[in-house]
Structure formats: C-alpha cells, structure tokens
What we know:
The chain is of the alpha+beta class and 397 residues long. Helices cover 46% and strands 11% of the residues. It has helices spanning 11-22, 32-38, 54-60, 108-113, 137-143, 152-158, 161-173, 179-187, 197-210, 214-224, 226-230, 249-256, 260-266, 271-283, 293-303, 307-312, 329-338, 352-358, 364-379, 386-393; strands spanning 27-30, 47-50, 64-68, 73-77, 83-88, 90-95, 100-104, 123-125, 130-132, 145-146, 176-177. 36% of the residues are buried. The model has no long low-confidence stretch (mean pLDDT 92).
Amino acid sequence: MTFPTTMAVPAEVLRIATKLEEAGFETWCVGGAIRDSLLGLAHHDFDLTTAAHPEKVRELFRRTVPIGIEHGTVAVLDGKGNPHEVTTFRKDIKTDGRHAVVEFGASLMDDLARRDFTINAIAYHPLRHEWRDPFDGRADLDAKVIRAVGDPNWRFQEDYLRILRALRFSARFEFRIHPRTLEAAKANAQGLAQLSAERVRDEWWKGIATAKRVSKLVTLWRDVGAARIWLPEIPKTGTEKVDKLPRDPVLVSSLLASDPPSLLTRLKCSNKDIERARAIRDWRDKYPDPRHLPQVRRWLSQTGAYADDLLAIVPAIDSSHFPLPASRLLQVAQAIRDAKDPLSLSDLAVKGDDLIEAGVRPGPEVGETLARLLDEVLEDPSRNTREHLLSRAVPRG
C-alpha cells in the first residue's frame, strides 16, 4: 500500500507543470495515467490539475486549445503539437445527472473529492514527488476493488454515466465492485435513461475495447440493469461466444443482439455501422456449404463488402447453423480470394457496351444479361473470357 518514491512523467508534461508552479500555481498529475502506472500497466496521457484558472493557463502558454473551458480544461500543445490537458481545481455546485456546473477556486482536496472512484482520486506532484490519496485509492488498487468516492448514491446521481464507467473498469481490470457501490449502481440504474445515446455508445464501445473478457462486461451491464435500458435486444444467456470475436464493437453488438440494426440505431451509430449490423442480421443464418465452391463464390458475391464481417463472426456462431464442415469456410473463402476468382460484375471480362455491340438490346436486357453471365462465371471462373462471355451473351437460335 506504499507509493513509489518517484514516477516517470513525460518531459513535456513536466515542463508544463514546472511553468505553472514557477508562476505560483500549485499543479499535480492526476487521472488514468496515475492509476495505470501504479498497476504496472501501459499508460499514455498524464493530465494535470492546477490552481491556475483557464484564462491564466492560456496566458502562460503560447499554444492552447480551449477543449472544455467551461469545465476548466485547456489543452496545452507541446513542441510537437501534442495536446496535454490542464484542468483548474474545481468542485461541482449543481448537477442534473448528466452535466455538472463547476466552480473554480477549489483546492486539490475539493477536486479529488468530486472524482468518481477512489482509484481515480490519487494525485502525484511531479516536482516534489509527493502523493495525495485522501480516499485510500491505493489500498483499493491493491485489493482490486472499484469503490465510489464518498456516498455512491450521490456520486452516481451527479452523473449516471459513472455507473457504466464502474462496469467498464471492473471488466477491464477484473476488479470486483464494492458492495455499497454495486448496490447504488443497481438502485440508480433507471437514471441511465437520462443519458444521451452518444455517451452511452462511447462507454459501451470503450468497454468492449478494454475488457479482459467481453462476456464479463455484458454480464455486468445485464446484472446492474443497464442492458435492460439501452441494450434490450441482448438475450439473458449465451454471451460467452463474444470472447471469440475481434474487439470490433459493431461485430460484438450485432452477434449479441436479436435485432442488431435496431440496437445500433438506438445508440445513434453511423449509417455505415447500422448497415453492417443489418447485413449480419440478414445473413448470419445463411452461410454456404464450404464443400461447394460455386456456392461459396455466390455467397461472397451476394454479401460483397459485408463478407468480412460475416466471416469474422464464424468462430462465435453455433456450428449447428452451418452445413458441416463449418471450420473450413474461412479457408475456402480465402482460397477463392487468393485465386482472384471473379465475384462481381466489375470483374467480368465484358462490360455493358461490349454486349450492346454484340447485339444485346440497350436497356434492362443488358443488366439481366450481365447478371446471367456473372452467375455462369461464379459456377466456373474459367469461363470469364471475353470470347466465351460474348458467345453466351446472345444465344444462337
């Protein structure tokens, strides 16, 4: 439960902290980089919290970006143009469960007291090598516990997104959630309905990307009540299969959901992601028999850009959905691609103009003929020659 004597802080962050301190403003390192460093994990952004007000930070540094100035956050750009967040000591004076109104002029202790969990409420002074841990976050790191700072009910009611953050940290670090914090999360789960879809989606996406096991994250969302509100298409059982998938949130969400496009529409995902989900829903029970090459070629042709997604979820799908042997489908599909077998109209050795020149009537007949020729080529790729296709374009009477 002791702290290291020193912590390696990037030189750019150290320069920013030094300049603030020399100007008379107390400055500390806080946030996820402190937590992850103490856990021995890779970490990236060292955030700073300071007594300097945002306007003072902007005066002291030549290159800044006011990324959240109403909440006291200014990004200071280093010599390479990389941003480093500097946030004024603050405390919440009003909240609606989604957004907080903050007041500056607080102390470091006030600032740490407004943070969500004890493991995120640890501060390190990069110049004096001092630590501040008023809520025993280090002890909770050692005990592998997610525990709210102060009263967990109040903490979640300040911002209901913290419930989802607790689930994400639990799944990421494989920490248990403290009983009182877990009880409060369940008691306040209905408040999640007040959140914007974008914030919920981002938290769900992050959780999928960082969880040790995605199935554990899904179980937490379900047990706390978050899935009932935001992911109702996800069934109550059969989540272990997602651990076999790449960490692609569209694939994970689509495999779990009974109606993937509805789920992604609720989360206000992009049209591209919703279309991916729709293709997975429409095709996940229509895989080809890998023993029949023409059938696999036709399937690749019909699914087009969505074939990769459908192939990616194969390891997680119940094998009873496949004409056996299902395990060969990935190999067969790759072999077809490696052979550069024609799979689309653009791959044909003839175009519409060639058909018209050969005597096909302009209009719908051209498209119908191309589709017929493609079907022949999918059956046997060796037929994809100009001579053969033109000979088949206008059947001889």
